[in-house]
């Protein structure tokens, strides 16, 4: 597969065309950002780790019946993905109160929800990715009610599968952000990435009662180096994939 012209560059990834019109080339960057990009720093090896982690998680999800746009990993920092028409939408699932949910609603961090909370945020940097509801999305032509009737159940299935995956490696899945899109034949698929950049992951092997972050909150809150945490997530996921006999793409 030949990498061609760059189509897009975001905060954490670059997207390139390939010689197959239905396949794109994704390059993971070493940069970490927070606060709408106001805080930024490069971490050696972060792109490699996020590429590995996303590949592992998407492969583990596929083994659980949830497909994604991933075709395969091609090297340390790159993967091939199916070309998608993406919804300009961040889909957030929350199992425990943390982050923006707490500051927005005055809830104490760590509150366990009776059931998962599904939220949508419009992908718009100028507006700081505002919180939106179903009606907002329909009137803004972001998606249709029919789209939402597919998106919401798939998001909840992904949450259930991720809870299972992370519980098996002694990690609490607090919340996560995903994106979805449609292929050229209209199939709705999970896309983008699932990494410690886009999840809150709390280590359950520490019995001190203190929250041990294995995610980007280490960077957001100046709590420590993210690389050892990301390495630990990758190591545990790789061990799980091997134990389950999952073929990693």
UniProtKB/TrEMBL annotation:
<dbReference type="InterPro" id="IPR028923">
    <property type="entry name" value="SAICAR_synt/ADE2_N"/>
</dbReference>
<keyword id="KW-0067">ATP-binding</keyword>
<dbReference type="InterPro" id="IPR001636">
    <property type="entry name" value="SAICAR_synth"/>
</dbReference>
<dbReference type="Pfam" id="PF01259">
    <property type="entry name" value="SAICAR_synt"/>
</dbReference>
<dbReference type="InterPro" id="IPR033934">
    <property type="entry name" value="SAICAR_synt_PurC"/>
</dbReference>
<keyword id="KW-0436">Ligase</keyword>
<feature type="domain" description="SAICAR synthetase/ADE2 N-terminal">
    <location>
        <begin position="6"/>
        <end position="236"/>
    </location>
</feature>
<comment type="similarity">
    <text>Belongs to the SAICAR synthetase family.</text>
</comment>
<dbReference type="InterPro" id="IPR050089">
    <property type="entry name" value="SAICAR_synthetase"/>
</dbReference>
<keyword id="KW-0658">Purine biosynthesis</keyword>
<comment type="pathway">
    <text>Purine metabolism; IMP biosynthesis via de novo pathway; 5-amino-1-(5-phospho-D-ribosyl)imidazole-4-carboxamide from 5-amino-1-(5-phospho-D-ribosyl)imidazole-4-carboxylate: step 1/2.</text>
</comment>
<keyword id="KW-0547">Nucleotide-binding</keyword>
<protein>
    <recommendedName>
        <fullName>Phosphoribosylaminoimidazole-succinocarboxamide synthase</fullName>
        <ecNumber>6.3.2.6</ecNumber>
    </recommendedName>
</protein>
